[in-house]
Amino acid sequence: MSEQDISQEAPDGGVPEIGPYVQGPEHSGFPAEEIDTSRPHPARMYDYYLGGWDNYEVDRVAAERVIEVHPQVRHSARANRAFLRRAVRELVTGGIRQIIDIGTGIPTSPNTHEMARETAPDTRVVYVDNDPIVATHAGARLTNTERTGFVLGDVRDPKAVLDHPTVRELIDFDQPVALLLVAVLHFIRDDEDPAGIVGGLADALPAGSHLVLSHATGEPYEAYAAGRTDERARDGVVNVYKSSTATLNLRSKAGIEPLFGPFTLLEPGVVRVPLWRPDGAVPGAEELNDTIFYGGVGRKD
Hints:
Helix content: 25-40%
Distance between the termini: 36 Å
Order of helices and strands: HHHEHEHEHHEHEHHEEHE
Largest sheet: 8 strands, mixed
Radius of gyration: 18 Å
Structural class: alpha/beta
Strand content: 5-15%
């Protein structure tokens, strides 16, 4: 759930207030009038799926349309969040002490730096997102948080992200880095070359770095005998995102695995996110069939 002390629900149940804004040369907040609320944004819709309050009416309407055709989407979002937590914990336990989280979305507690610092309090984290409202909330919540920064940037421009002063200040590219692309690349079209984007980011990372990636799919879970693609639900979800600021580009497992590029997949490979090194009971085949995210972790040798 999103932290309630930063964005409170309006007394009349309307749009929550946003703020406070970070001032100064590293300002990452934006006046409300500069934030596009005319179209739903995937980050704000995802916040709604997770039960957060950092969204607008246009986002809630779109998210409810998705829920109407695919009621399990909230379960999938939470399963994806749990995968992120397990992956971060695994990498930090293995010695990673710096993380670049691209497409972080609305800060939702526990955030990546909070997850990492459960194991290693000295972990450095840079968050990157291209939505001004994310910048506003991140700036508010990360103010005075040591070894943590936020960059307003777009994954489609890896060089600009990697060259940003905040990234260069916090990340030592001579030491292994964990790169997080969690629920991001399905908003990148094929013609925008998602594999090339990963490759451009990977080129800057030294051996021993890791990639944590999750991606939405429209294909059924292979181990579910009754599994099939619900074309009506799939097309309904995709159509909702056509009206948002980023289209949804579902890919199969066979289409997701190559996105890891130079990163060698760790066991158990690319799997439905609840199956990636679970720390509790494993869902049954039907529930896995309803979980729309694949996830995996790779290592650069």
